[in-house]
Amino acid sequence: MLEMRPDCERCGTDLPADEAGAFICSFECTFCADCAEKLDDRCPNCGGELMDRPARVDDNLLRHPASTQRRYRR
Q1: What is a single Pfam family found in this protein's UniProt entry (predicted)?
Q2: CA–CA separation, 64 vs 10, rounded Å?
Q3: Residue-wise pLDDT tens digits, 11-22
Q4: Does residue 73 sit within a domain?
Q5: Rg (CA), the chain
Q6: What's the structural domain count of the chain?
């Protein structure tokens, strides 16, 4: 199950689990759309391809909440 990280690792933008706009690699490194575009859809951590993260909505989000651990480091 995806961790659904709450923020962009590059700029700190909030990325709610129930909304579109997050991009992830196979290791779940997470970036906003603007940063993914600036990174040419390549993860700077592992070199993997950044893909659209699916949203988690309704009962699924209630039963399996998103992570609250932020990854952005200033």
Answers
A1: DUF1272
A2: 25
A3: 999 999 999 999
A4: no
A5: 12
A6: 1
